[in-house]
Amino acid sequence: MTHFAVIGPPFHSHLRAMEALAGELLARGHRVTFVQQADVATMLHDSRLGFAQVGMGSHPRGSLKAVIDRAARPGGPWGIRRVIADMASATDMYCREAPAVLRSIGAECIIADQMEPAGGLVAEHLGLPFVSVACALPVNREALVPLPVMPWRYRPTPWGEQLNLHSSGVYDRAMQAHASVISRYAAAFGLPPRQRLDECLSLLLQLSQTTPGFDFPRTALPEHFHGIGPLRSALTDEPAMDIPVATGRPFVFASLGTLQGDRCGLFQRIAEACRDLDVQLLIAHCGRLDRRQERRLLKAGASWVTDFAPQRAVLARADALITHAGLNTVLDALEAGVPSLALPIAFDQPGVAARVVHAGVGLKLDPRLANRRRIVQALRRLLSEPGFAQRARVLGDEVRAGGGAPRAAQLIEAVLEAESPGLRSAEHG
């Protein structure tokens, strides 16, 4: 049995993916502890998980809401700087406090989200093996691949390479506050110099929810990088869809995720467009709207409005998805063979939307310019042109074949067996 410690951002989509992987490891006889700030303890669903608190002084109970609110609506340059400062503060907290906590709980291996470089820094400092997991788009850099936050398409040309180089420089300058923390602790821990997320990845094993067919063409990924598809609990563990969808009329699911679900105006334009097309629409706002706003959306044309919906069950019945282009939501749509209309808002969503278009599994619109007419035009294409759904089904086969959490657990056990005879995986059967 191995005692794993999980380190990553405290956001819903990242926690759910990591919790699915943790559940698989628990089922194989291992022990898993989430090392996180206090507010995350109540966000975890599996009672078998351990929890070790960090940040009692800097990230006390109740402080996460402000971080999430800033991430949900970063706004202009000053707001983005505040979000970057939050990232830097979290990395500083982990590097400052996690070493002692990990020693105290007897952690033997770290599972580190790619978006939290402290996982790799602390693991190297303590001499622990660690696995990097890309819950969002992978941060691994290649000259011809735009950074995940960039909205443009893949251009395998000298001009495209120069565009990526220039934009990477702009991004790195914007991330300087975070880079300074990474650099400072790398020096303090006696590690080689580094400043970027991609410089803190595991040399042992890297796992990504993004499958090869959904990413831009890659030529420089390490051999220990594996695209294993979405990290999810078993579909049988999720509730069934209980809304009365009528046959004979298209059914569309709209979700803007757990951070951006408060954009009532955008939801209203979606509802009006679906009414124009005589389409059944389910909106899930993830608890970000009130009753008055729900009634407003029903009046605008939505068939149903709810806080949370069993997403995979809904997508199994849907004809199209309208989404903020969160990676988890888009992968769930691909698993179901459903095309997407992507309305990217923040973080790596522009990059996910660009890949939706590149793969031919959907269309994208700028949410600021996505008026009722444009949504009608895009949605009509998704529903009437069979090629989008056909390509989504092909990619869905790849997503399902990736292996998800079970394969991730197998790969982790295999590399630990090879890395150290002292870290042996549990025997099964």
UniProtKB/TrEMBL annotation:
Region forming the signal peptide: none
Gene3D superfamilies, per database record: Glycogen Phosphorylase B (3.40.50.2000)
Any one GO molecular-function label of the UniProt entry: UDP-glycosyltransferase activity
SUPFAM superfamilies found in the cross-reference section: UDP-Glycosyltransferase/glycogen phosphorylase
InterPro entries documented for this protein: Glycosyltransferase_28, UDP_glucos_trans
CDD domains: GT1_Gtf-like (cd03784)
Keywords attached to this entry: Transferase
GO terms, biological process: antibiotic biosynthetic process
Record PANTHER family: STEROL 3-BETA-GLUCOSYLTRANSFERASE, STEROL 3-BETA-GLUCOSYLTRANSFERASE UGT80A2
Name by which UniProt lists this protein: Zeaxanthin glucosyltransferase
Species of provenance: Stutzerimonas xanthomarina DSM 18231
